[in-house]
């Protein structure tokens, strides 16, 4: 029922997307200019509020005497970056992180696309229970399962293996991945596939040739979302990897934190900037291809 | 049932993964190599311990051809470090051969069967006689009397005071309070005479964790009538409830924060009180005195997080007095770290060889100087080279004879947690001293079991 | 027209009937089933078992089966009940009300704003989202603590400085989570609004319906499914937020910002009570499921 409400809407929105904004803008300009100015103002204030916390990070990263107070660095210095930009603290952990999280993201995305297809296309009595089990299991804090996971990894001698850690990361992101992906796939009308089927394509071929290109924005959402959550995950790689030279950046950030409370704020801030960079780049890369944040969001409907 | 399930899973995983060609790395096997695991934390951001251990490794490998030492730093918060080494020690394939632990945790790990008794080794080691008795007792199990570690360093606690500020407030220096009241009087004087200066710091609250308990509460509690038995009576093996000493110590905390003699409550209870005090308020001459550990000067060394060359002219130290000045007049608390050999270590003999090198006189002296920690070997403690290395070494080493170690029992972390809760509730004024003490008694009973508690005086 | 479109777009086809065929159709599910079974189902079952034992990581050599002890202990423990309550406050305050409403408002307003403003607001909101959790936690600490940037701003505006992390820590962590998570809701709603049929809104406009009326009676019913998806996902994510709170307050002062994940971490890893900690994790799982059921009922969305 709900679906029937949404589908025509979805199609109307898509097909009319290019033409629609123009008349909307002109009528708005003529009629409700004060309202628009107010909206712009409110949004600017909100943007300011959102950007404020980031200011500290930027200032502290170029300050020689950083604390948690917001101070203009005088004079600005690159010492903090010099201190952290070395193989051991930054480069190797970043590379490890890219291998672990990149590999796991790729795996998670591919596997959840495969899983989403039958879940979206075929009816089965098992489908609903499966989907809800998968959904609810996302509510379990991953820290809680790490001790059994460690024991399991030790028993089969997978501990300290980056490949196995990658597999585990992928598995832990799968529930949300499958769920989101299935929702996106529901948005691709099945009629389009039928044409391909008539031409003799099998399910996998029509998935690859018809469905995937249409739900590409959804795929990118899952990609970014999965990558972000893994990139910040400390506990999983910390527990499953033993050799320091295999640990990712989410672990090495602790070089700057805690312990007799002697946090090195400047270096922490500098590291945080460098550490955030790959995620921002991934985001920009994927959205640039899709024409801005809205296209990315465009896939995220129910 | 559980085993079967696990085994089934294990087989699935193993086949899946070996097919994919990514079997586990396995541990460094063989009788010729050992793995040494330690906590790399921030106050070694200049990697003091790593550098030191690396020189030890190099010289050991040179002296013992064919042997290999692998140094494995673990970067994490202290809690997560323990989680990791405990997990590692659970299985022979991941257990290190030498592991670095806080003495407070050792008994807990002994109870879990993670550590190997070292008695056969120390019996043949002449140097063992040089280790201070108190330090030795901190690494032996009260249950079986065996030794499970070799102490690495220790620390003591006292009062760091700002000489200039006290003088400005009209308090004569060198200052040595005789009773708790002397401390409160001095703080009141500073508060009156020097507006804008925080009179004193006493760590408190849950965010501070063990810092609140050891530097804050236990420095008080062990100075009350019950002295060394105030928290736990080692003879009767009972945890103490409802003692007057406990309430008095809470009352002191309550007074400090109720009369605004300490940091603003929000800062004192915040997650970063230690940083605030050590790297800001003290070097900026904004705090008159602080009950804290012997390592404080590490903050202000050239390599520390807040270099403060003038510190040795400005800061001085005094011992913490007992409540009413009763004998022995002074009190201190000690912790410290130690090296253990896990029960499942693959190569304990070689680990012991390395341990003997690591903790011989020359290397112990070098390490205590590098880290400015308090010596655990009596011969090092008397060595002028060590005593003169840092201006405060002599003073804090002298406190060793007044010092107490915590009841390093498996339940201690939970007891400690209950103490921080009681401290926090009297600091905020949320509950009265009596109520907080009562809540503590209940929490204690939950944590250790009510048959392991006894009413104190 | 509508019904025709509906049947054409219906995503589900009746299955062919033969067992072999449906097995074949389910084949693409295999890799994920395998990964989930091996890496998650096993450990989760193990956890369920642990929750009924007195397992400890350190301090005891043996583990005993203790039945429901961990659960009875939890529900008799005022700290647990406090954590449960704060978790509800945190989820409702920061996700259901905060992220959800702010995300929707931003999406609605962005539609009406000029392009540069829209890009700006998108950019900064999403910037907060892509920060790794621990970094976000430290930034939020720097923002809210007493000498922090927020109070500097309040000071500049002539408003009284607040002691955020001390007086109302749960509010501070809620706001922090709103800051960090709003981007997700904003994206969901931007997408959904984009697809509300223009004709519907215009028709309502001609009928003289006001802005609020249009939003409430036209737009929201249409995007009901998106609302549910969004609420479910942000609730489940917010329920397990740990790093952000831990970095900001450690759950304090006292236990005033100690939500269930923080409480669980402290019991399991600080006090080494793995059994008890795991039992708490299972309670958290149930809370998440309850929220989801409520959403499904309230929004009357069928999963199909």
Automatic annotation (TrEMBL), chain A:
Occurrences of domain ABC transmembrane type-1 (ranges): 94-286
Source taxon at top rank: Bacteria
GO biological process: one example: transmembrane transport
Key words of the record: Cell membrane, Membrane, Transmembrane, Transmembrane helix, Transport
Ribonucleoprotein keyword on record: no
Biased composition (Low complexity): 7-22
Membrane-topology descriptor: Multi-pass membrane protein
Residues spanning the membrane: 37-59, 94-117, 129-150, 162-181, 214-240, 265-286
Pfam (any one): BPD_transp_1
Compartment(s): Cell membrane
Predominant cellular place of this UniProt entry's protein: membrane
Gene3D superfamilies: MetI-like (1.10.3720.10)
Region of interest (Disordered), residue spans: 1-22
InterPro entries: BP-dep_ABC_trans_perm, MetI-like, MetI-like_sf
UniProt family annotation: Belongs to the binding-protein-dependent transport system permease family.
PANTHER family: INNER MEMBRANE ABC TRANSPORTER PERMEASE PROTEIN YCJP (PTHR32243:SF18), MALTOSE TRANSPORT SYSTEM PERMEASE-RELATED (PTHR32243)
Protein name (record): Carbohydrate ABC transporter permease
Source organism of this protein record: Streptomyces tabacisoli
UniProtKB/TrEMBL annotation, chain B:
Pfam families: SBP_bac_1 (PF01547)
Keywords: Signal
InterPro entries: Bact_solute-bd_prot1, SBP
PROSITE patterns found in the cross-reference section: PROKAR_LIPOPROTEIN
Gene3D superfamilies cross-referenced by the UniProt entry: Periplasmic binding protein-like II
Position of the signal peptide: 1-19
Superkingdom assignment: Bacteria
Name the record gives this protein: Extracellular solute-binding protein
From TrEMBL, chain C:
GO CC entries: plasma membrane
Topology of the protein relative to the lipid bilayer: Multi-pass membrane protein
Record bears the keyword tRNA-binding: no
Pfam families assigned: BPD_transp_1
ABC transmembrane type-1 domain: residues covered: 85-295
Keyword vocabulary terms for this entry: Cell membrane, Membrane, Transmembrane, Transmembrane helix, Transport
Family the UniProt entry places it in: Belongs to the binding-protein-dependent transport system permease family.
Name of the featured protein: Sugar ABC transporter permease
Classification lineage: Bacteria, Bacillati, Actinomycetota, Actinomycetes, Kitasatosporales
